[in-house]
Amino acid sequence: MLRTHFINQIVPQMEGKEITLAGWVHLVRDLGGKKFLILRDKTGLGQIVIDKNSNSFQVAKDLTQESTIMVRGIVKADNRAPNGVEIHAIEVIPLSIAKSPLPLDVSDKVKADLDTRLKERLLDLRRLEMQAVIKIQNNVVKSFRETLYNEGFTEIFTPKIIATATEGGAQLFPVIYFGKEAFLAQSPQLYKELLAGAVERVFEIAPAWRAEESDTPYHLAEFVSMDVEMAFADYNDIMNIIENLIVNMVQYVKKYNENELKTLNYELPEISKPIKRITYSDAIEMLQSKGTNIKFGDDIGTPELRILNKELGQDLYFITEWPALARPFYTKRKDDNPEISESFDLIFRWLELVSGSTRNYRREVLEKELKARGLNPINFEFFIKWFDYGMPPHAGFGMGLQRLMIMFTGLQNVKEISLFPRDKKRLVP
Amino acid sequence: MLRTHFINQIVPQMEGKEITLAGWVHLVRDLGGKKFLILRDKTGLGQIVIDKNSNSFQVAKDLTQESTIMVRGIVKADNRAPNGVEIHAIEVIPLSIAKSPLPLDVSDKVKADLDTRLKERLLDLRRLEMQAVIKIQNNVVKSFRETLYNEGFTEIFTPKIIATATEGGAQLFPVIYFGKEAFLAQSPQLYKELLAGAVERVFEIAPAWRAEESDTPYHLAEFVSMDVEMAFADYNDIMNIIENLIVNMVQYVKKYNENELKTLNYELPEISKPIKRITYSDAIEMLQSKGTNIKFGDDIGTPELRILNKELGQDLYFITEWPALARPFYTKRKDDNPEISESFDLIFRWLELVSGSTRNYRREVLEKELKARGLNPINFEFFIKWFDYGMPPHAGFGMGLQRLMIMFTGLQNVKEISLFPRDKKRLVP
């Protein structure tokens, strides 16, 4: 018996047609001697009616929630049913009977806390809310790639096992690589820069790792990093690309995920070009005028970002031109003011989504910037040696997919978004 | 000064127009008191002419191969020039002067061996041959995703740091995860199966790792794995999907990478549906009839695959229904013949590209199959416990991108294809 249709393909115009569905038992109700079975497949929910005197009635009695089944039946238009149709069952074939009770209620009658949800994650991912998140994420990523393809970008796959710390920082996971110590890449930063020096316009969507000790709603030990690097470009070009990316993603999700946004009861922020750009210096001034005692050179933390969000009246804004020494060694300083850098962060309300900059492309500048940060250029020779061989000026950014998805779903914790999140206490499932 | 065009956008119809290009000095020639500079950008090569009495002549004298420059000039149609156009330089601005001599000749006048190429990889990736490989790979991956999107598949991101060996095998890289031992995933196998149990049709393109001790042209310690898993489907459905994927990829590359195939001097194999399917048993019989002393249960090695390739007269063929015990524990046995399994490999000439099967979806069967392979079900409880909660029948496959690219480029070694390959002796660049 083969599935002939997905649930969302069944419409009232198919009245009388015999079809076969496959999916999960979302709910079973007894009513007036009949069984009403809500079947779930990847396209949604559908109502199956099983008559008391049908052969399937006995079979249906043993069906627990979340069992997988196939159903052969006849389409009946019915205004009272969801989507205006129900299926009158001819045959119900159980495929796998689920244990009862379930450790997590997929039909959402009983709400569970996040720890339980992540522990029983497979069941949690079957909840309509998580199905919506997964579908929206699929389109966010798809739209991201489509925009970049249209701008002539090429997809790259950079190495994830690396010999040295990418940016000289800590927070690396050590790997035992054929008996030698190596590390998991925190970011494809240096490799994407090198590839911009060969392929010009590159992007990558791939895992990246940070050994975050702290447990926050915005950090994962393993996350999906969306990276872009572009030769013969500067940070303004990159901000323009990000504007296009974001606006296209928002339009795409609005167009293709109307149902999922409804399921999440979430309204996407209105985003239009240009996205507000405020310099770091102006941001500091604004914060000082609001009575905070922040000063030039300080990081702008969440409480301050909340103030900026309110003052600017913008869901999304760039903070540009950060102090040079607050940024990594590969960040280019401004030619006319070397205290500040050609850099930016993109902020959603009070959450950093993107960090980007013009990069240094001269070996002697890279060496100077490494030293200015107490790093030894010799340890970065594997990277800076290539700058002897004609590196173009270039710029780029990195964006965390799970953080970006907070903007697209209204969820509040990146651990809800990652399918199987990894953090200090989670290595399974 | 901003780039106004890419090189491949300059056509004879633009005669007299002032344009600005950016790129690398591919070659410089002196001829008749003029300099002929071949400029390279991501779209190809273009010819720049610099007159002896122009301001740029002195600048051009210092330009070494692979330096990055910008060039402002006037388009002149000229039949003798490549693409029928050359640019008469008004201004040449050096951006980064490359050291000379280069450790690797990007213009390919001097051929280097693979070790040197991988050591000087950034320069190697600028060679037109590698540029072609990168562009073809971009389209192979793009076409793969497009076909799957059209079939209703959703992109997933599975965890790469895992607690236990995926398939009970060795060859894992240990990771120190917050002081505990964990491993890098050999494959997303178990997670993609679980996700088929929530999302039905899923795919992932992501790194995977095998601690391969041996140095062969077909193995990498880190490779890109293209994975598909589909609920309510069996191995025949999956082979049908693979046929569509391969045929679409071949058409896509033929259509959009004509120039790159020419650069590689490579002709794609003719592939049409259906792709030949031969059972393992028939393959063994055919090999025995050709005088090999292979017997049922043996693996089919490269020498035997060469014979099959010749006998079948096919570039691409499936070997189906392998002995059950030759396949991993998650592989489903045939209902009517439990000695053999619902499985297949896809072979390109004599190279395995894909491995796939119908999977087991009943807990008791999984437990039995684990035991039959000397594995302890308790160690796989994190996986098999979910089979208590309504797993659908499902099937899927895994495909190595770099191996697939051998078919699309004619290159002979996956290390040439991986941008920065990782193997026992390579951790940099």
UniProtKB/TrEMBL annotation, chains A, B:
Binding site for L-aspartate: 167, 210, 355, 359
Main location: cytoplasm
Chain positions of site Important for tRNA non-discrimination: 82
Cofactor: Mg(2+)
Record domain Aminoacyl-transfer RNA synthetases class-II family profile: where: 134-429
Recorded GO CC terms: aminoacyl-tRNA synthetase multienzyme complex; cytosol
Leading EC class: ligase
Enzyme Commission numbers on file: 6.1.1.23
Region (Aspartate): 189-192
NCBIfam families given in the database record: aspS_nondisc, PRK05159.1
Protein name as catalogued: Aspartate--tRNA(Asp/Asn) ligase
